[in-house]
Design brief:
This protein is an alpha+beta fold. About 25% of the residues lie in helices and about 45% in strands. It contains 3 helices and 5 strands, in the order αβββααββ. Strand 4 and strand 5 form a beta hairpin.
Length: about 100
């Protein structure tokens, strides 16, 4: 669902469920302009979202950053960032961590 949402907005999905040692990146995607690579954590919820910090704690944020740093050599010419997509039954939202 999240990958489809990104594709509809022009993002190119490069990888899903990418295992990097003990860490995993749910989606690796390239922005529509090709200048940014986003490492995306996907969270699902049935209720209100709350804050992104509540959905992705500091430990998980550290894992995501570490995973992104492992990928720097693969994407030397891109801006790298970590995002979270929250999926709710009625919609999908993307927020920057």
């Amino acid at each position: 669902m999240a990958a489809r949402w990104l594709r509809r907005r022009g993002w190119r999905i490069l990888d899903t469920n990418l295992a990097l040692g003990r860490d995993e990146i749910d989606i690796v995607a390239e922005s529509p302009d090709g200048g940014t690579i986003s490492f995306i954590e996907v969270k699902s919820t049935r209720g209100p979202f709350g804050s992104i910090q509540d959905r992705v704690g500091s430990v998980k944020q550290g894992h995501l950053r570490r995973s992104a740093l492992k990928m720097v050599r693969r994407f030397p010419a891109h801006v790298l960032r970590v995002d979270v997509i929250t999926v709710q039954l009625r919609g999908v939202w993307m927020a920057r961590v």
